[in-house]
TrEMBL record:
Residues 40-50 have a biased composition (Basic residues). It comes from Macaca mulatta. GO terms for cellular component: extracellular region. Residues 62-143, 272-375 form the Ig-like domain. Residues 22-61 are annotated as: Disordered. This is Platelet-derived growth factor receptor-like protein.
């Protein structure tokens, strides 16, 4: 019986070799149907943990991308540094990548509609060119991409470029001023700037009081010096008022700037502080009447007046006169007094009623009224 069993196993072994073409290992027996073919093992294997990027470590804010290039001679390009020093007379060409580019440059070039500067928009970049430069052109040149929907565009804060260019001119250490004397108003609620800007990056600049004569230190607490703006009064107060000037030294040369009158402002910023007063609130027939509208405000803030009066619909002829002047209110405080006067001659019944004055500045408007009756 055992002989026949061994003979049967041998025949099965030969048959498998004929089918697979491989020799079965002699030390292994063929597995029975349903037998587990995976051998258990006690070998320890470290599980592989997938690497996960730490999202918190990445900066979620959009990265700023400089899009400005400076065009050099022979068609070469370079990214401009934060500050550039060029000789007056040199030409400058700046390009910013983008199909819609906005530009900013020294206001001096816009004020006089200077033909020396040109701004063009090409298909892939914006182009700014300045020729025959002068020391007065010293300032910041910047560009930015624009995101537009129809005719409405906004600045793309992630695509900008800027450079501050010093145009050095012989005999000019300071950026020229259009006048020999300027007024700087000191507001208690905001910074004030004495605009002593230089044309030489390495120049040493100091601030001086005319009387009593002394240097005013830029200590970084009350006053700081910013080469792009001048001397900045961080928290102006009445003790800062007076006449000051700047002194610059560079390359063995020195120069004094124009003088600046610092005036302290007594009235805080905001909509006009307005009052109205009639020369008489009861007027007889044939008499004249004057209605005065008065605003006390900041010295450098303009005020516009508009009137509504009873005879307006009937095109009643009246005279309206607007004036303003600076007044000193003690302790060196300076205020702008703006007034508008409406005069009605030969008073009639149609002139009786409300006289309404509206005063407006950049911060808002104020409306006041008074009545003038027929006596």
């Amino acid at each position: 019986m055992k002989v026949w069993l061994l003979l049967g196993l041998l025949l099965v072994h030969e048959a498998l070799e004929d089918v697979t073409g491989q020799h079965l290992p002699k030390n292994k027996r063929p597995k029975e149907p349903g037998e587990n073919r995976i051998k258990p093992t006690n070998k320890k294997v470290k599980p592989k943990i997938p690497k996960i990027k730490d999202r918190d470590s990445a900066d979620s804010t959009p990265k700023m991308q400089s899009i400005m290039m400076q065009v050099l001679d022979k068609g070469r390009f370079q990214k401009p540094a934060a500050t550039l020093s060029l000789l007056a007379g040199q030409s400058v060409e700046l390009r910013c990548k983008g199909s819609r580019i906005g530009w900013s440059y020294p206001a001096y070039l816009d004020t006089f509609k200077d033909s020396r500067i040109s701004v063009k928009q090409n298909e892939r970049y914006g182009q700014l060119t300045l020729v025959n430069s002068t020391s007065a052109d010293t300032g910041e040149f910047s560009c930015w991409g624009q995101l537009c929907s129809g005719y409405i565009c906004r600045k793309d804060e992630t695509k900008t470029g800027s450079t501050y260019i010093f145009f050095t001119e012989k005999g000019e250490l300071f950026v020229p001023s259009p006048s020999y004397f300027d007024v700087v108003y000191l507001n208690p609620d905001r910074q004030a700037v004495v605009p002593c800007r230089v044309t030489v990056l390495s120049a040493k600049v100091t601030l001086h009081r005319e009387f009593p004569a002394k240097e005013i230190p830029a200590n970084g607490t009350d006053i700081v010096y910013d080469m792009k703006r001048g001397f900045v009064y961080l928290q102006p107060h009445s003790e800062h008022q007076g006449v000051v000037y700047c002194r610059a030294e560079a390359g063995g040369r020195s120069q004094i700037s124009v003088k600046y009158q610092l005036l302290y402002v007594a009235v805080p910023s905001g909509p006009p502080s307005t009052t109205i007063l009639a020369s008489s609130n009861k007027v007889k027939s044939g008499d004249d009447v004057r209605v005065l509208c008065t605003v006390l405000g900041e010295p450098n803030v303009e005020v516009e007046f508009t009137w509504i009066f009873p005879g307006q619909k009937d095109e009643r002829p009246v005279t309206i006169q607007d004036t303003w002047r600076l007044i000193h209110r003690g302790l060196g405080h300076t205020t702008r007094l703006s007034q508008s006067v409406i005069t009605v001659e030969d008073f009639e019944t149609i002139d009786a009623g409300y006289y309404i004055c509206t005063a407006q500045n950049l911060q808002g408007q104020t409306t006041v009224a008074t009545t003038v009756e027929f006596s």
